Amino acid sequence: MRSWSKTIRVCCIAFAVAMYWPPSAWAEGEGDPIWKVEVDWEIRVMNPHAETSSPQISLIISAFPHLDSWYGEIIVNSCQYSGGAYDGGISTRLWNGLSPSTATYSRVDQPIVLDDVILLTQMFSIEESTSTPGTTVLWSKHKASSSSTWGSVLQFGGGMGNSPLANLNNFDLQVTYNESGVNVGRNRVERIRVNKVRLYHASGEITETSPSYEIHNGLIGDTASFRTLNSDGTYSTVPVDSKTSDSVEFNTGF
Fold first, then answer.
1. In a domain, 1, yes or no
2. How many CB atoms lie within 10 A of CB 231?
3. Quick check: is 252 in a domain?
């Protein structure tokens, strides 16, 4: 994980934390626990294919340095939920390993039809329940986004009551880098970049970094490649995105 570069202390933030983080959770000897992680994404789409809702992009925040337990996902340009699916839009999911626990979808449902730049903030948090005081909820949320296709989209998401986690201290940014990417139509995505990451602590401290880390580039693909055998017996390394079409299927979990 990269080192965190900036710390912000603000009185109003401390007040907000007091509202959302139950005091009992801070009394468990966890130091200054992390209760919320936010990631600011920049996605650049080129030559989208509306008929197949291509491209489709998956964004991941995990509570652990793996995906065998709890993590949140946002799917861009596809809305999938327990009752079905529709083209376009944005959807959120909360996962426990291979089991989807919740799924919600935004009020925008049209697919991307023109080149676009999507700025999106993803959030994964443990917050005090507003309906059952003294208990917590584990949330996977879309905090906000802006784009030419959908305009400004406000906060929405799904949560698990009686949170199975006490904190997010085991968050690993490298998992976000490794597991996020393009599900369908890699050649239609010019860039996926993590611009900023914020960790919210129970004390009110916010630790922020600006990695500007590209997990996908239209020229190099998703940090992965494969080898092809040339006619002269040598091998060439080919970006994975150059072999991905609009018809590639992925596991929806439902």
1. no
2. 5
3. no
Smallest CA-to-CA distance from 84 within 109, 48, 61 is with: 109
Task: Kindly give, in sequence order, each residue whose CB lies less than 8 Å from that of residue 103, ignoring residues fewer than 6 positions away.
Answer: 80, 81, 82, 91, 92, 93, 94, 158, 254
pLDDT tens, position by position, 49-58: 998 889 999 9
What sign has the CA pseudo-torsion 29, 199, 139, 59? Answer: negative
Rounded to whole angstroms, how far apart are CA atoms 140 and 85?
19
DSSP 97: T
If one counts the domains in the chain, the total is 1
Q: Using alpha carbons, list the distances in angstroms from residue 229 to 134, 148, 222, 237.
A: 61, 42, 21, 9
Beta strand segments in the chain, E: 6-9, 34-45, 56-64, 66-81, 84-96, 99-105, 116-128, 136-147, 151-153, 156-161, 181-184, 189-201, 205-209, 213-217, 225-229, 235-239
Model confidence over 185-219: pLDDT tens digits? 888 999 999 999 999 999 999 999 999 899 876 65
Domain of 209 in residue numbering reads as: 6-243
Tell how strand 116-128 and strand 84-96 pair up: unpaired
Has residue 251 been placed in a domain?
no
Count of C-beta atoms within a 10 Å radius of residue 77: 29
d(CA 67, CA 221): 22
